[in-house]
């Protein structure tokens, strides 16, 4: 798929029904307070072999900056799988799916929503890179995740027709969901250290580093977050917590160079732009520039 057709497709897709109903799956919980929902969800995820690796209390961090009216918001980094090492070395982008990010947030009416991404569009977009076993692992993981989420909340039915879904899914192959680059002339550990410093330098603060594979070929991802950006984006479009904090991943290539990548923010803007005010779009664009500038700094450009 050429770049122009992709852009036209994404523009069309963004207006095709409710795109959020295809890309995300949301469950609503009523009659329970926010923290009890978080604790129940954590317990059930751990019991279902969908281990919770981190609990990120996004709202507490934002409120600590003086934004006292920000609603309760927590992201659970979960769905840990022992098979992820081979998957992520083969298709590095899949760290956006495994481990998964489950967003739990409070609505204006006091109810609580739980949102996870729908893995199917990403499986289509990376269909050439993923083997049948890879697809089976991801699909099984998300099937189990949906089972847990449906035991806690009620699924919010999609506002998009089956015909639209079939058409969209057939066209997703080749869409650029990934921004990638290569760092040459330094070791994996040096590249990781320098990139962490560079991201901190542009206020993309590193909340954590997950070293998925410590032997060659190595693989790590960083959870990068600017809370000022996060406040504006999550207040308008809370679904994005499923892609947050931004995962900037590094991996050793066969030639000894270091690959680096993250989700294509320009694609996200084209997909969800109609759901965002201009200032939120500008925040996305600024985050993209910040990450790219950090990578360029590491490369010495």
Major sheet summary line:
6 strands, antiparallel
Strand arrangement, major sheet: 2-3-4-5-1-6
So what's the overall shape? Answer: globular
* Proportion of residues in β-strands: 15-25%
> What portion of residues is helical?
40-55%
Can you tell me about this structure?
The chain is α+β, with helices and mostly antiparallel strands and 301 residues long. It has a single domain, classed as TT1751-like domain (TATA-Binding Protein, 2-Layer Sandwich). It is 45% helix and 22% strand. It contains 12 helices and 11 strands. The N terminus is likely disordered.
Could you give the topology of this structure?
Elements (H helix, E strand, L loop, with lengths): L2 H12 L4 H5 E6 L4 H14 L6 E3 L1 H6 L9 E6 L5 H7 L9 E7 L5 E6 L2 H6 L6 H21 L1 E2 L6 H10 L6 E6 L4 H14 L3 E9 L5 E7 L1 H10 L9 E7 L5 E6 L1 H8 L5 H22 L2
Antiparallel strand pairs: 1-5, 1-6, 2-3, 3-4, 4-5, 7-11, 8-9, 9-10, 10-11
Helix pairs in contact: 1-11, 3-7, 9-12, 10-12
Name some characteristics of this structure.
TATA-Binding Protein; alpha+beta; 22% strand; five-stranded antiparallel beta sheet; 11 strands; six-stranded antiparallel beta sheet; disordered N terminus; 301 residues; 45% helix
In brief:
This protein is of the alpha+beta class and 301 residues long. It is built from twelve helices and eleven strands.
């Amino acid at each position: 798929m050429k770049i122009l057709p992709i852009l036209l497709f994404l523009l069309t897709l963004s207006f095709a029904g409710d795109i959020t109903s295809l890309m995300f799956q949301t469950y609503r919980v009523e009659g329970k307070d926010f923290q009890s929902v978080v604790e129940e969800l954590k317990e059930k995820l751990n019991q279902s072999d969908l281990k919770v690796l981190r609990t990120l209390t996004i709202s507490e961090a934002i409120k600590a900056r003086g934004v006292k009216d920000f609603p309760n918001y927590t992201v659970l980094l979960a769905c840990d799988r022992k098979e992820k090492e081979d998957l992520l070395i083969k298709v590095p982008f899949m760290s956006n799916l495994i481990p998964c990010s489950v967003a739990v947030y409070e609505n204006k009416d006091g109810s609580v929503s739980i949102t996870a991404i729908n893995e199917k569009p990403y499986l289509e977009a990376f269909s050439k890179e993923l083997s049948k076993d890879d697809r089976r692992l991801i699909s099984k993981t998300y099937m189990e995740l949906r089972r847990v989420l449906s035991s806690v909340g009620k699924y919010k039915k999609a506002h998009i027709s089956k015909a639209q879904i079939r058409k969209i899914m057939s066209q997703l192959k080749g869409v650029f969901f990934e921004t990638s680059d290569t760092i040459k002339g330094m070791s994996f550990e040096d590249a990781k250290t320098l990139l962490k410093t560079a991201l901190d330098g542009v206020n993309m603060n590193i909340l954590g580093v997950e070293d998925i594979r410590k032997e060659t070929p190595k693989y790590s991802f960083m959870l990068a977050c600017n809370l000022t950006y996060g406040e504006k984006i999550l207040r308008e479009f809370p679904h994005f917590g499923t892609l947050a904090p931004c995962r900037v991943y590094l991996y050793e290539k066969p030639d000894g160079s270091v690959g680096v990548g993250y989700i294509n923010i320009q694609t996200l803007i084209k997909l969800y732009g109609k759901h965002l005010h201009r200032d939120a779009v500008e925040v996305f664009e600024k985050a993209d520039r910040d990450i790219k500038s950090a990578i360029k700094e590491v490369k010495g450009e």
